Amino acid sequence: MTKPVSTAYGTVLATVRTWFRWSKRRLAAATGKDPAQITRWENGDQELSRPMLRTMLAPFPLEDLEGTIDALVFVHSLAFPARPGEPALTAAERRTMNRAVLAAGTAAAEAVRADWRRRKQAEKTEAARRAAEAVWTRLQAAPPKAWRALIADLPQYVTVALVARVCEASVRPAAAGKADKARELLNLALFIAEQVAEPLRSRARGYCWAFVGNARRVAEDYDGADEAFDRVWELWEAGADCELLPEHRLLELEASLRRAQRRFPQALELLNWARKVSGEDPIALGRILLIKERVLNYMGDIEGALAALAEAASFVEASGNPGLLYALRFNMTEDLCVLERYNQVADLLPQVRELALEQHSERELTRVLWLQAKLDAGQGRLDEAAHGLQLVRRDFLDHDLPYLAALASLDLAVLWLRAGRTAQVRGLATEMEAVFRAKKIHREALAALLLFCEAARQEAATVTLARSTIAEIEKAMRSSSLAE
Q1: Which CATH number fits domain 400-484: 3.20.20, 2.40.230, 1.20.120, 1.20.1740?
Q2: Sorting pLDDT into bands at 50, 70 and 90, what band is 184?
Q3: Whole-number Å distance between alpha carbons of 208 and 13
Q4: How far apart are CA 258 and CA 293, in angstroms?
Q5: Packing angle between helix 402-418 and helix 362-378, nearest 10 degrees?
Q6: What pLDDT, on the 0 to 100 scale, is given for residue 3?
Q7: Which end of the chain has less Cβ packing within 10 Å, N or C?
Q8: Mean pLDDT score, 476-482
């Protein structure tokens, strides 16, 4: 007599029992059943119901009882012949079919697991960031001198998400030249990072040091910035992965340092690496490509810079980040001005102006006025252009931005030289020399500026000389805190 084929539930029972290395006698003792009954179920001599299967599997440490049953029943359905009533298949055809179904099922299962893990991790990461934002809001309501005491009293404040949030808070004051404020925030971030448990402590400290390096870059302390990034990667490698501390952010910051040092190939290499590890985050991808645009712009590859912006556009727009969108539109308009594509500049400028208003920054509004003046000059509205440039240079001087004020002054000088108004250029040069001698401008840039002023006094200044002076000042500016 042929041995009956075991039922699916009986096979599930046998599989689980064997996996955990339980004998039938041990399972019988745990469930109060007869070992012979277990044998009949497993051999298929007697049908086992699903409710009884649940009872028999209850003693085993299964994380998901129902899921385990369903998975093993599915495998059972592939291992045994077709049910009565199904189209007749040969043994070979059935094997081919079952293997195809198993492969498809396995691939689908892995895809579902991976998607589920990604979504759950994203939810947890976003929840941690929201919690850190709430804590940061509470800390800001207290005086800075009380921050450490608050954190020490409330250990739930010590999270890598808060470390990342405080680090990001240091970027704006650093860029604005408020070194003391940036240093205060980074000292707080390092204080929090020191209290994070290993294996995340090393990585949290490394993350902080990247922002320290960024602050030093802005302050033109390039040796100090190099030392900071040496420490970054040593600490980073000693720590564990954490989505709240994205590696691409460190690469972006180091790329900005290499750009300021005019180490352009290294900056581009770092940005390519950052892009590889950034995943599908549109904010990260948009920011990486915007930095790449600045590198290419400083290299003089304006067409390449525009191509980087064209690639960044979809990511920036998908991110919904107003700061990135403003940077995208402004940089594109600026690059088009360099290429003298004034019709395109005219189309973009209203959008740039509207986005600048949302930035709530006088400096950005002045930069947009500067673009308008360049457009006016390019389209032949010389009086409007001259008036705009005079306003721009005055605003930059009032806000102690000597490089930008010098460039706006030289743009005005070019305009007047082309119109043959040498007397006005001479007067402008006299004012420029008096102002910029007192400003902290790189020696090479100041020397070039004073040479132009001397030529203007002798009415020997030319558009070519003005252009070369602009190039020298731009070179110095790009190595300064205004390189952003």
Answers
A1: 1.20.120
A2: very high
A3: 53
A4: 14
A5: 20
A6: 43
A7: N
A8: 56
65 contact partners, CB below 8 Å, separation of at least 6: 54, 57, 58
**Residue 87 pLDDT:** 61
The per-residue pLDDT of the chain, averaged, comes to 86
Total number of residues shown for the chain? 484
State how far the Cα of 42 lies from the Cα of 45, in Å rounded to an integer: 8
Greater model confidence, 116 or 382: 382
| Contacts with 466 (C-beta within 8 Å, 6 or more apart), sequence order | 410, 413, 414, 417, 452
372-373-378 Cα angle (round to 5) = 95
Sequence spans of domains, the chain: 8-83+90-110, 400-484
3-state secondary structure of 460: coil
Helices then strands (H, E): number in the chain? 24, 0
Judge whether 473 and 453 are in contact, CB under 8 Å: no
Q: Which residues contact 57 (CB under 8 A, 6 or more apart)?
A: 12, 13, 16, 65, 68, 69
**Percentage with pLDDT > 90 across the chain:** 43
Output the six-digit token pair for 164.
Answer: 């990342």
* CA 256, chain centre distance (Å): 13
The phi, psi pair for 290, rounded to 5°, reads: -65, -40
Quick one: which of 356, 352, 367 has its CA closest to 403?
367
pLDDT tens figures, 240-258:
888 899 999 999 999 999 9
Cis omega (within 30 of 0) for bond into 199: yes
Summarize pLDDT for 292-305 with one digit per residue, the tens. 999 999 888 999 99
Could you tell me which of 449, 461, 371, 375 has the C-alpha nearest to residue 416?
461
Residue written as token pair 């099922």 = 105
Q: What is the CATH number of domain 8-83+90-110?
A: 1.10.260.40
- Spell out the long-range contacts of 79-84 with Cβ–Cβ below 8 A and sequence spacing 24 or more: 80/5
Q: Which tokens is 28 given? A: 């019988």
What tokens appear for 56 in the block? 């028999």
Q: Which residues contact 158 (CB under 8 A, 6 or more apart)?
A: 151, 192, 195, 196
d(CA 270, CA 265): 9
**pTM of whole model > 0.85?**
no
Token couple for 335: 């690059």
Residue type, 378: G
* Dihedral class, residue 4 (left if φ above 0, else alpha if ψ from -120 to 50, else beta): beta
CA 320 to chain centre: 14
At 154, list the tokens.
Answer: 């409330």
Rounded to whole angstroms, how far apart are CA atoms 205 and 309? 33
pLDDT single digits (tens) 119-138: 777 788 889 899 999 989 98
